[in-house]
């Protein structure tokens, strides 16, 4: 069976798992309304829309969405059109929600965006902006792994078959000269696909020896005695690589460009505030995590995790192409046609209005 076909079937199974637990509330769980963000008096709906449905994960790498919701940046930009959030655990389920029109706009990692775009032959989504770089680490049990070469023969967790961190780890392992079957995860190193929520327990029990994971999971492992063996940013030019993008349904972008621009303005304003107020932003992100999940992060997890993430409007398009190449080399994806995956015109319109420089799409923009 071709790897791409097997991967598609695997994604279908993986995507179904979070859907089973979230069936009562659609594709993503709704964020709790704590009443902290209100529509301004006299505000008007944009394009007559009652709401725009915005998806994101409860990860700090989705900090723009967390802070933007908590501090009301999205709602301010949207006027009386409600910013209606939905929380996801995995990229495939968010892509599924986008395809079914359960959400309109979403914060998501590069690999699900690439896979979603290619599976739909380029007809379902566009990447319309960046959000974050970095925030991914290889954390290991220091009693079992003392150097990078010691990773060989060990059990290393990644969040999901074919997800952004899974691809990165498989590519890194291949660069060490190690052979790993991309589907089973078996080989010179064993890749264990483990939900970020359960990986810390798997580490504590000894069922995995380490993990290549995003924040805050990486810092949760460190709090359990793990050691950061490698920060993925060290593998990239200028230590920058896309970890979170903003995507939109193509039909929604066509029908409601003003709403899309408003959400992007909220994102740009949020990132500007985050970078100017890192401590307050960290607290706001944590408060939104508590609102969404009922549990805030402790300081020994939150503080180091937040420091490792860079928030940016730039989608770092050239690194998306590189990540796609990594997936192809790993045998998880046939060579994709990414032409047209970006439409940065709405973002650049917002940036120009803010007096900020425009952003390049690395030749992958919609024509």
What features would you describe in this structure?
With 367 residues, this protein is α/β, with parallel strands linked by helices. The chain contains 14 helices and 12 strands. The strands form 2 sheets. The protein has a 7-stranded mixed β-sheet with strand order 1-3-2-4-11-5-12, sandwiched between helices. A 5-stranded mixed β-sheet has the order 8-7-9-6-10, sandwiched between helices. Helix 6 links the parallel strand 7 and strand 8. Helix 2 packs across helix 11. The longest helix has 20 residues. The radius of gyration is 19 Å and the shape is globular. The protein starts with a helix and ends in a 14-residue tail after the last helix. The N terminus is likely disordered.
Key phrases:
single chain, 367 residues, alpha/beta, seven-stranded mixed sheet, 14 helices, 17% strand, globular
Short description:
The protein is of the alpha/beta class and 367 residues long.
Beta strands, count: 12
Mean pLDDT: 90
As residue ranges, the low-confidence spans are 1-27
Helices and strands, in N-to-C order? HEEHHEHEHEEEHEHEHEEHHHHEHH
Question: What is the helical fraction, as a range of percent?
Answer: 40-55%
Rg (C-alpha, Å): 19 Å
Strand order of the largest sheet: 1-3-2-4-11-5-12
Give me the secondary-structure category.
alpha/beta
Separate helix tally: 14
Largest β sheet strand count, sense and barrel closure? 7 strands, mixed
Query: Ends: how far apart?
Result: 35 Å
Shape: globular
Q: In percent, how much strand structure appears in the residues? A: 15-25%
């Amino acid at each position: 069976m071709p790897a791409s076909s097997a991967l598609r079937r695997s994604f279908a199974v993986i995507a179904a798992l979070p859907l089973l637990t979230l069936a009562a509330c659609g594709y993503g769980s709704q964020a709790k309304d704590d009443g902290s963000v209100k529509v301004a008096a006299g505000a008007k709906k944009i394009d007559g829309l009652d709401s725009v449905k915005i998806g994101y994960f409860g990860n700090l790498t989705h900090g723009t969405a967390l802070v933007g919701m908590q501090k009301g940046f999205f709602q301010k930009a949207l006027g009386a059109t409600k910013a209606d959030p939905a929380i996801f655990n995995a990229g495939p389920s968010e892509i599924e929600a986008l395809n079914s029109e359960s959400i309109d706009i979403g914060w998501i990692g590069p690999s699900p965006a690439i896979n979603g775009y290619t599976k739909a032959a380029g007809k379902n989504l566009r990447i319309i902006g960046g959000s974050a770089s970095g925030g991914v680490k290889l954390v290991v049990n220091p009693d079992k792994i003392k150097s990078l070469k010691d990773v060989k023969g060990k059990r290393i967790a990644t969040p999901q078959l074919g997800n952004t961190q899974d691809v990165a780890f498989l590519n890194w392992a291949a660069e060490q000269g190690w052979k790993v079957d991309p589907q089973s995860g078996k080989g010179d190193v064993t890749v264990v696909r483990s939900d970020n929520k359960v990986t810390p327990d798997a580490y504590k029990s000894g069922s995995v020896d380490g993990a290549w994971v995003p924040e805050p999971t990486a810092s949760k492992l460190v709090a359990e005695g793990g050691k950061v063996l490698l920060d993925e940013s060290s593998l990239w030019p200028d230590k920058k690589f896309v970890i979170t993008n903003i995507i939109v349904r193509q039909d929604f972008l066509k029908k409601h460009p003003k709403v899309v621009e408003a959400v992007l303005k909220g994102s740009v304003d949020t990132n500007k505030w985050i970078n100017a107020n890192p401590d307050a932003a960290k607290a706001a992100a944590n408060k939104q995590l508590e609102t969404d999940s009922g549990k805030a992060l402790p300081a020994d997890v939150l503080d180091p995790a937040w420091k490792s993430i860079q928030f940016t409007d730039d989608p770092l398009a050239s690194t998306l192409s590189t990540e796609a190449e990594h997936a192809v080399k790993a045998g998880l994806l046939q060579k994709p046609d990414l032409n047209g995956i970006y439409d940065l015109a709405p973002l650049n319109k917002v940036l120009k209005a803010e007096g900020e420089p425009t952003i390049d799409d690395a030749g992958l923009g919609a024509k």
